[in-house]
Amino acid sequence: MLFDRKTVGKTLRFALYGVLYAIIYHFMDN
User: Fold this and answer.
1) Going residue by residue through the chain (30 aa), what tens digit of pLDDT does each one get?
2) Residue 12, phi-psi category: left (phi > 0), alpha (psi -120 to 50), beta (remainder)
């Protein structure tokens, strides 16, 4: 499995947004 810069960038961005959404959702829930 080869990793391009685009693939890595998309994966990192996706993970970052996922974490941010989880944190925001957690704080909004409380």
Assistant:
1) 567 888 888 999 999 999 999 999 999 987
2) alpha
The reply to whether the predicted model has a pTM over 0.90 is: no
What total number of domains does the chain contain?
1
Range of the domain at 20: 1-30
Candidates 20, 14, 15, 10; CA nearest to 28 is: 20
In this structure, which amino acid lies at residue 9? G
What whole-number distance in Å separates Cα of residue 2 and Cα of residue 4?
7
Rounded Cα–Cα distance for residues 24 and 5 (Å): 28
